[in-house]
Amino acid sequence: MTRKDINLYSPRSRVPESSPRPDSRPVLHRARLVFPISQPAIEDGAVVVAEGEILDVGPFRLLRRQWLGAPARDHDETVLLPALVNTHAHLDLSGLAGQIQAKGSMAEWIRSLLAAREQLDEAHLEQARALALDSLGGFGIGIVGDISSSGSFLTGHPNNMLITHTFLEIFGLHTENLEVAIERLPPAARNVLADSQESVSLAAHAPYTTSAPLLKQIKEWGTARAKVISVHAAESEEEINFLHSGQGPLRDLLEERGHEPDKWEPPGCGAVTYLERLGFLDPLTLCVHAVQLSKEEVQILQSSGAGVCLCPRSNLFIGHGLPPVKQFLQAQISCSIGTDSLASNADLNLFEEMNVLMEECFISPEGVLAMATLNGARNLGMASHYGSLEKGKRWLAIRVAATDSEGIIEAGRQGALEWVN
Questions:
Q1: For 333, which of 118, 184, 262, 318 is 20 to 30 Å away at the CA?
Q2: The pLDDT of residue 150 is above 80
Q3: What is the pTM of this model?
Q4: Which domains does the chain show, CATH number per domain?
Q5: Dmax of the chain from CA atoms?
Q6: DSSP state of 241
Q7: 42-50 and 27-34 strand pairing
Q8: Residue 295 burial by Cβ neighbours in a 10 Å radius (0-12, 13-18, 19+)
């Protein structure tokens, strides 16, 4: 099995439906620097676009001669690059922004999150979710992988610049049947699964909250439909301790919540090893966080072809440390980037995540930009259409007020970017 383009997602129109149809003639977009991602940056570059499709990419002087009849749009001293891909967000938790303090413990953070969430009404949560959704465009994010347990995305607010892939999150430490777990989802979520919408998939919450039979069935569900399945994995030392021994702070939390952890048999190994034993890992699996794992488990990820989503600011906030990013890259594991939720992050700005990876993990600007674009599209099964500026792909692009790769990250952090139509 190979990671491929799973669904033919189309962004919503960026102009009102009542507006006249835009000119279908090719347009030559020129900029100081074109950053295709799939090839080196092009000085004084250009992209030829018609009706939302990229027809050509290359040096401006060459394309100007080849496309003599195409009007040119000059973006001056800026960089053109593909829209960013946030492969892991929890928009449902946006109402908790600024309310959860760093605890240095996964169990304590979850305990605080649950307590704070119980104090908020649904109207507040939905309004906060809508504001968070709207903020993504300002950060240059054109595609988001959103983990949902509420089904509120179905009645959410339209965002004309955003492609959303929703992962419906499944829990059940003692649940052994996927149909039973799905019945516990909100009615709107169950309905969309019944409708087989292409932009909706499943997520297993984590190996410590989802039974072995349920993990297997979730993966089988995704394989049968050729859909990417997401899972939180190896996020904290407390998770690994619980999987090895069945003891520790997560056990206490599960007992408090009535999940009877003493009736669950720990696998006696790390999260990645456990998922591999269950047949959960393959190129259509996205492992989120992947902080606490052994060298052998890095090799397991490499052999399986599974993707990894890095959420560095969230990991640092909660106190987990950072994943072994250099090892992942040396193993050619497809690493993308997510912001996680506003319950563990200050904002949803992927450029800030890139900055942390550059400063703390010593990844190059070109490396983090690939993670935030092409690798993100690949890890969501959308790389045939998005994630890079290539002939035949769809035109979903931003321009950033910079003139080199390092400047892109800093300008993005400051919000110095615009969408290109």
A1: 318
A2: no
A3: 0.93
A4: 27-82+390-420 (2.30.40.10), 84-379 (3.20.20.140)
A5: 73
A6: H
A7: antiparallel
A8: exposed
